Amino acid sequence: MSHAIYLKNVSKTYQQGKVTVTALDAVSLTIPKGQFVAIMGASGSGKSTLLHLIAGLTTPTSGQVILNDQNISAMNDDALTRFRRTHIGLIFQAVNLLTTLSALENVCLPMGINGSRINSVRDQAVRWLELVGLGDRLTHRPDELSGGQQQRVAIARALINEAPLLLADEPTGNLDSKTGEDVLTLMREIVTDQRRTIIMVTHDPKAAAYADRIITLSDGRIIEELGAAREMFVRIGS
Amino acid sequence: MSVKHALLGILNEAPKHGYDLKRAFDERLGDLWTLNVGQIYTTLDRLQADGLVEYEEVSQTDKPDKKVYRITPEGIEEFNEWRLRPLKPEPRALRDELFVKLMFLDVDDASIMFELIQRQHSIYMSQMMTLTERKFQIEQTAKRALAATSDPAERQRIERHKMLQIMLLDVALFHAEADIRWLRQCEVRLKQLFG
């Protein structure tokens, strides 16, 4: 059975002057497809490093990062870029939508610079924006949208390439309580209805509580896991 | 926890016998408070002694007589007065067992203290996962129910029921979150003192 994510003895170290800093220390991790995983830990625990490694934004010092049975640590830049475009959607705390483009155009962007000119791409974008509750804001530009609405545009943008793996870094960090709840419920629905895999880094317990499984890091190592067994009951029931 | 007033409130809507009362209580407050039938009957006895409820024996053909309880005019007055009365301006009682343990902490026990804090943190986090799962189920159930009807009164009823259930879960969630934040803060302070 192939897993969504398989980290095999992954370490990440870097030099800070004469000192070697270990951000991740021989971490092994298996995440099955369709699981919603939260990664928690104090700052400096290695959680962001872990996410960046899974996203292919950095390479491990040792060990392997295997996504969907493919070893991304062994890929060259071109192969990695192609892989990321089709397999990974990113949702970061800083939304970075293009301010001169409408919500619809922003969502079409991952499908190519002229994505919004292609009917099938536009239709897809409309569908995802409707799913995130912004069907009536398609032509709005980012400065005409609230923080929560901008984050939802970013989520639609991350969903449009139908990537099986979604990676989120503090997705509700800038949102008020209720909007955060709506975003997290949407992410939970995506996992349940579309069997995508979501990895979310967060320090917020209320956000982490939406996950099937919570992994806690400290000093570059996994020190605790919660809830893995619960996932079994959710699947059987649904 | 005002069980007496919750029962008065349910009877204010319609007369009920004991088991129906339990069912109504569980349906609305079950996520927060588990009552057994004995507690309900004890409370009903007290309410009856205070003249706030009365009962009628209803004969049934092949079962023993059952008591159907009904709220009295005095009961209605008491319920409405209670319902609209503001809470006393007192801070919530905080009796945290972990804090009592912390009070007796000395430097030799520091590592055990960290372990206790870590374990308590995990317990609260697991509780939050269970509560959030329940919240998600309620959302999905309401979504499906809303999609199945176009009757505005029914839709209102569904939304109201969902809102009340979620508000109840939120109280537990916010408290668990507050406890987690306190624990994290304790950990930071203890590390500063004991290294």
Short précis:
Chain A is an alpha/beta fold. In chain A, 35% of the residues lie in helices and 27% in strands.
* Fraction of residues in β-strands of chain A: 25-35%
Number of helices of chain A: 8
User: And the CATH topology of chain A?
Assistant: Rossmann fold
Oligomer: heterodimer
Mean pLDDT of chain B: 88
| Helix amount of chain B | 55-70%
> Numbering strands along the chain, what is their spatial order in the largest sheet of chain A?
6-7-8-3-9-10
Helix content of chain A: 25-40%
- What is the number of independent domains of chain A? 1
Give the beta-strand count of chain A. Answer: 10
Kindly provide the radius of gyration of chain B, computed on alpha-carbon positions and rounded to a whole number of angstroms. 23 Å
First and last CA, distance of chain A: 21 Å
What separation lies between the terminal Cα atoms of chain B? 42 Å
Class from secondary-structure proportions of chain A = alpha/beta
Q: What is the count of structural domains of chain B?
A: 2
Total number of strands of chain B:
3
Strand order of the largest sheet of chain B: 1-3-2
- CATH 2nd-level architecture of chain A: 3-Layer(aba) Sandwich
